[in-house]
Amino acid sequence: MANVKYSEDVVPISDLKVNPGRVVSQLGKTHRPVLLTRRGRGVAVVQSLKDYEARSEEQSFLRAVVQGLVDLEEGRELDLAAVKKRLGLSD
Question: Would the pTM count as exceeding 0.90?
């Protein structure tokens, strides 16, 4: 994910109400999330659907990698022959 540019990526929620197309267009061009504010405080983050899905997939992959490393450390592993047998793939 690209670094936040506070001069561009912090938008009052009233701006979103007035010109939502500009914010959506910005998301597509920059691939950075936009922080929506109300009375100077952050209230929501908006990002493009494509970027959201990519980040979600990346997080799922990283969680699976971490779980695999934990499984290895705790001795929960199978050799290739056992995996083939479990999947019904014989040599």
Answer: no
Structural tokens at position 45: 């983050």
Give the tens place of pLDDT for each residue, 43-79: 999 999 999 999 999 999 999 999 999 999 999 999 9
Structure tokens at 81: 């022959």
Closest residue by Cα to residue 11 from 42, 30, 29, 35 = 35
The Cα–Cα gap between 91 and 89 comes to 7
Helix, strand, coil percentages, rounded to 5, for the chain: 60, 15, 25
Tokens of 2: 């690209």
Q: Is 87 exposed, middle or buried (0-12, 13-18, 19+ CB in 10 A)?
A: exposed
What sign does the CA torsion over 19, 22, 25, 31 have? negative
